[in-house]
Amino acid sequence: MPSLQSHSLTDKGLVRDNNEDCYLSKPSEGLWAVADGMGGHEAGEVASAIVKRTLDEAKVSGRNLEDAIHTSHKAVLKAALKGEGAAGMGSTVVALNCNDLEYQVSWVGDSRAYLWSEERDGGRLEQLTTDHSYVQMLLASGAIGPDEVDSHPEKNIITQCIGSLDLPQIKVDTVRGSWEKQQWIILCSDGLSDEVDNTSIAQILCHARTPKEATEQLMQEALNNGGNDNVTVQVIESPLFKRSPIHKLNEWLPRVTGHQWIDTSLYSMALLSVVLIAYWTLR
């Protein structure tokens, strides 16, 4: 399978003094992951690093993604017992594995995966994952409504994580799908989803031209909105993604208005003006 186009970024944010997030990006092997550690300085980053290392090693040995995540849970518990990191450290994870035109997303905790599909009228954003969180449980039970989720005082309480001392066995959720043209999958920690709502994420993706541009703009928006947590973002492009000559030209041209077709029209008029001036000058 050819390597998929992708881009990844992580930042400690504007409030925290260390970064407990980390990511795994192995395009040649079709594997990406975001891990959001917890447990304080020299603990959360240890847990997330163990998750990253375990997933990487599991891919090499041929184990499937769900088994690899279960193994990372045991590895974090074992490390804490040996004095690596600290007791009670943990991590979320959301991981993407691609095999030709099929993909699998598996997760534990509240790190998310989104599917962005480019369409004629802009595009459509779909959240592929369901948070393992207290607020999600309230929402599913009907105790609160969708409009209460973002403002709920306990929205950051998760119901399970890798390394949880209360869970000898974690539940790994999985969704599977098939790539279509003009799609991206976005993996992120809650440092993005807490600061940037789905409507804003969709608007940024609608105007971004490449995974790199999308990742950078999503990161900047999270920081502009406060950067209260560590932020990690990955954007992975469908192997079927096609770029027209105009699309490729737009990637090269600098942005003026931020709207693709307006910019294209402005450059077209500028080019036409140059041609007309040259014509009248040389005739």
Structure in words:
- There is one protein chain.
- With 283 residues, the protein is of the alpha+beta class.
- The protein folds into two domains: 236 residues, PPM-type phosphatase domain (Phosphatase 2c, domain 1), CATH 3.60.40; 41 residues.
- The strands form two sheets. A five-stranded antiparallel β-sheet has the order 1-10-9-6-7.
Averaged pLDDT: 90
**Poorly predicted ranges:** none
Number of strands: 10
Number of helices: 8
Shape: elongated
Helix content: 25-40%
CATH C-level class of the largest domain is Alpha Beta
Rg calc: 21 Å
The portion of residues forming beta strands comes to 15-25%
Order of helices and strands: EEEHHEEEEHEEHHHEHH
The CATH architecture classification of the largest domain is 4-Layer Sandwich
Strand order of the largest sheet: 1-10-9-6-7
Major sheet details: 5 strands, antiparallel
CATH topology of the largest domain, by name, is Phosphatase 2c, domain 1
Which structural category do the helix and sheet elements fall into? Answer: alpha+beta
Compute the separation of the termini in Å: 55 Å
Tally of individual domains:
2
Q: What is the fourth-level CATH superfamily of the largest domain?
A: PPM-type phosphatase domain
